[in-house]
UniProtKB/TrEMBL annotation, chain A:
<feature type="transmembrane region" description="Helical">
    <location>
        <begin position="62"/>
        <end position="81"/>
    </location>
</feature>
<dbReference type="GO" id="GO:0005886">
    <property type="term" value="C:plasma membrane"/>
</dbReference>
<keyword id="KW-0472">Membrane</keyword>
<dbReference type="Pfam" id="PF00335">
    <property type="entry name" value="Tetraspanin"/>
</dbReference>
<keyword id="KW-1015">Disulfide bond</keyword>
<feature type="transmembrane region" description="Helical">
    <location>
        <begin position="20"/>
        <end position="41"/>
    </location>
</feature>
<dbReference type="InterPro" id="IPR008952">
    <property type="entry name" value="Tetraspanin_EC2_sf"/>
</dbReference>
<protein>
    <recommendedName>
        <fullName>Peripherin-2</fullName>
    </recommendedName>
</protein>
<dbReference type="GO" id="GO:0007155">
    <property type="term" value="P:cell adhesion"/>
</dbReference>
TrEMBL record, chain B:
<feature type="transmembrane region" description="Helical">
    <location>
        <begin position="20"/>
        <end position="40"/>
    </location>
</feature>
<dbReference type="InterPro" id="IPR042026">
    <property type="entry name" value="Peripherin_LEL"/>
</dbReference>
<comment type="similarity">
    <text>Belongs to the PRPH2/ROM1 family.</text>
</comment>
<dbReference type="InterPro" id="IPR018499">
    <property type="entry name" value="Tetraspanin/Peripherin"/>
</dbReference>
<dbReference type="GO" id="GO:0007601">
    <property type="term" value="P:visual perception"/>
</dbReference>
<feature type="compositionally biased region" description="Basic and acidic residues">
    <location>
        <begin position="348"/>
        <end position="357"/>
    </location>
</feature>
<dbReference type="Pfam" id="PF00335">
    <property type="entry name" value="Tetraspanin"/>
</dbReference>
<feature type="transmembrane region" description="Helical">
    <location>
        <begin position="98"/>
        <end position="122"/>
    </location>
</feature>
<protein>
    <recommendedName>
        <fullName>Retinal outer segment membrane protein 1b</fullName>
    </recommendedName>
</protein>
Length: 344, 364
């Protein structure tokens, strides 16, 4: 017994073909959308590649771009088939390859679903890349005279201002790096010599943060220097001070930014997959209704359309049997050759 | 002598009506476009209204919005006229409305030109308004505990960071104002007491700027305090230091921004004026050509279309005469009611006898 059998007359077939043709054109737009989202994501990753150590994986945006292109092509092709289905002579040339086309569309759909799943999972490798990248960013903050790193300061400052974040996890990360270049340190001064002598690597470490960490919403002019020293500033307690500098770490800020982008893209790809399944079902109905015409010569005769010729279970056992037969067939051939060899 | 006469065959009239219908729908879109431009300009001005002292400059986006809406309606009417112009029965009802339409369309064009002119003419007013607004903003920077002014600090900080500017004219404006609130000053410290005593008003003045003046492109971590003291920082000379802070004043930055906005809106508005003028002229031709055709014995014959029935000067004289006679008519009425009722009656009787005499003489 066929799965979801529907009776079709000419009028219904024409209507079905027109509807599926419209849906194919929607699906082409959806393919363009997936392509452009992949492109957008790629550009956003490139923009901040300095904070990912230039090491970020472009696998996902490249996959989205490829999927978008393939979606466009297959759906345009499917639309052409729908358009031709109303004309029996034109449809005859598509008929033989239609079954293979439908099977390949199903495989492509499953690939699309995997892409959507990847979008949701990509957050995890991104987290590691960002941690490394931001740490290096802060380390090279002072190297404004080193070629290749001279824009790191500006980029990091602008990013902290734009994303309203400070440091990797929080502002204390800045205390562990020397972010003032040696060019601007007076090595004859006692204070500088003390600070450099106070740690193993000979670095000038301060309990201070760059100006880009300052929060404009603070009621007080920004306190950047001597942040852990309560007596250095009037009426200041660094344990309770909330609004002075940004509390959030830049890794969290960037992760949530990219995370929301990827979630949106993943959700849209799932919707596109559902649309694709719908057009495949539509095309299967067209295919089955046109191949079961009661009177093959008369285009106005009635026919039946279905999703699967037999029930799901029967179709599955059929496919398994076919695969076994193919496997046995190759075995028999080998056995036959061996027999022939022994005989001869 | 007729102005710019053109011959119209039936075919040409039909083409003119169709072309004008398309053009008037294009003009409707342009009207919507002008409205959107006005809305955009107004939102941009409103976003920074806290640093502006007055709203005189808002007249430009207001005109644009008004004209945009009016032109959508006007051009829609023009498209309806085009649709009816080819049917002899439906066209006459537009006759009266068309004169009003021409006046309104010409008025819209004039208003658009006025908007463009004003956007340049009001630049001085905008500058003044920004000067006062920014000065107040800088003065009230420290008042984060005063209701009504508590967001001034955040506004000025975000403005300076977004527009990459510092102070009103330059960063030295911050030296003249106390921008650190008294709540965060330790009045027992000698340094604070010295600074407060060093000026007449008892303000705590510094040669420092807020952090939002810092330039991220500087190779050196930002120097905010003791800016005029070369010895306070290693390897620092404030006269030659260029990249440390933003050099531009916020007034200049905002003026440049708004002038750039109006300059890019200008060509769009000018092309809308051109389109509106062409709709106006084409509709005049269509009106005269169709009216001429309807007056002929065979409506499908050739007719003439023109812009003005008489020359420009003669038409102007005629309009002047019409307006004056309308005014005179109004003046004559009050003077006639002042006359005594008997005199009016006598006048009426005399008129009647004159008419009777006049009518009787031809009979006899």
């Amino acid at each position: 017994m066929a799965l979801m059998l529907i009776k079709f007359d000419l009028k219904k077939r024409v209507k079905l073909a027109q509807t599926v043709w419209f849906m194919y054109w929607f699906a082409v737009m959806a393919g363009v959308l997936v392509f452009s989202m992949g492109l957008f994501f790629k550009i956003e990753l490139r923009k901040r590649s300095e904070f990912m150590d230039n090491n970020e994986s472009h696998f996902l945006p490249n996959l989205l771009i490829l999927m978008g292109l393939i979606t466009c092509v297959t759906n345009a092709f499917g639309g052409k088939i729908c358009y031709d289905s109303l004309d029996p002579s034109k449809f005859a040339k598509w008929k033989p390859m239609l079954k293979n086309f439908l099977v390949s569309c199903m495989c492509f759909n499953s690939l699309l679903l995997m892409t959507a799943l990847l979008c949701f999972l990509m957050r995890i490798p991104l987290q590691f890349t960002l941690t490394e990248g931001l740490k290096n960013g802060m380390r090279y903050y002072k190297d404004t005279d080193t070629p290749g790193r001279c824009y790191m300061k500006r980029t990091l400052d602008l990013m902290q201002i734009e994303f309203r974040c400070c440091g990797n996890d929080n502002y204390r990360d800045w205390f562990e790096f020397q972010w003032v270049s040696n060019r601007y340190l007076d090595f004859s001064s006692k204070e500088v010599k003390d600070r450099i002598g106070s740690n193993v690597d000979g670095q000038y470490l301060m309990d201070a943060v760059p100006f880009s960490c300052c929060n404009p919403s603070s009621p007080r002019p920004c306190i950047q220097y001597q942040m852990t020293n309560n007596s250095a500033h009037y009426s200041y307690d660094h344990h309770t001070e909330d609004l002075n500098v940004w509390k959030r770490g830049c890794r969290d800020a960037l992760l949530s930014y990219y995370g929301s982008m990827m979630n949106t893209i993943g959700a849209l790809v799932v919707l596109v997959t559902i649309l694709e399944v719908a057009v495949i079902i539509g095309l299967q109905y067209i295919h089955s209704s046109l191949s079961t015409l009661a009177n093959p010569e008369d285009p106005e005769s009635e026919s039946e359309g279905w999703i699967l010729e037999k029930t799901v279970k029967e179709t599955f056992t059929d496919i398994m049997a076919k695969m076994k037969a193919m496997g046995k067939g190759s075995k028999v051939e080998e056995g036959g050759e061996a027999v022939v060899a022994t005989v001869s | 002598m007729v102005l710019l006469k053109m011959k119209f065959t039936q075919q040409r009239r039909v083409h003119l009506a169709q072309g004008l219908w398309l053009l008037s729908w294009l003009a409707v879109m342009c009207g919507a476009f002008v409205f959107c431009l006005g809305v955009y300009l107004k939102t941009e001005l409103l976003r920074r209204e806290e640093v502006m002292d007055n709203t005189e400059i808002h007249v430009v986006p207001n005109i644009l919005m008004m004209v945009g809406l009016a032109s959508v309606g006007t051009n829609w009417v023009a498209s309806r006229v085009c649709q009816d112009s080819l049917e002899g029965s439906r066209f006459p009802r537009w006759k009266v409305l068309l004169l009003a339409w021409f006046v309104v369309a010409a008025l819209l064009c004039c208003l658009l030109i006025a908007a463009v002119v004003l956007s340049y003419a009001l630049q001085g007013h905008l500058e003044e308004s920004l000067k006062v607004g920014l000065r107040n903003g800088i003065r009230f920077y420290k008042d984060t505990d005063v209701p009504g002014r508590c967001f001034q600090k955040e506004t000025i900080d975000r403005l300076q960071m977004e527009f990459r500017c510092c102070g009103n004219n330059n960063f030295r404006d911050w030296f003249e104002v106390q921008w650190v609130s008294n709540r965060y000053l330790d009045f027992t410290s000698k340094e604070v007491k010295d600074r407060i005593r060093s000026n007449v008003d008892g303000r705590y003045l510094l040669d420092s700027v807020p952090f939002s003046c810092c330039n991220p492109a500087s190779p050196r971590p930002c120097l905010q305090n003791h800016l005029t003291d070369n010895s306070a920082h290693y390897d620092y000379e404030y006269q030659s230091e260029e990249l440390n802070l933003y050099n531009r004043g916020c007034r200049q930055a905002l003026i440049d921004y708004y002038m750039g906005l109006m300059n890019s809106i200008g060509p769009g508005v000018l092309s809308v004026i051109l389109i509106q003028m062409s709709v106006l002229l084409s509709l005049r031709y269509l009106q005269t050509a169709v009216e001429g055709a309807m007056a002929l014995e065979n409506p499908e014959d050739d007719s003439e279309g023109y812009l003005l029935e008489k020359g420009v000067k003669e038409t102007f004289e005629e309009i002047k005469a019409n307006v004056l006679s309308m005014l005179k008519f109004r003046q004559v009425d009050p003077t006639s009611t002042e006359e005594s009722p008997e005199a009016a009656n006598a006048k009426k009787v005399a008129d009647n006898t004159k008419e009777k005499a006049g009518s009787s003489t031809p009979a006899s």
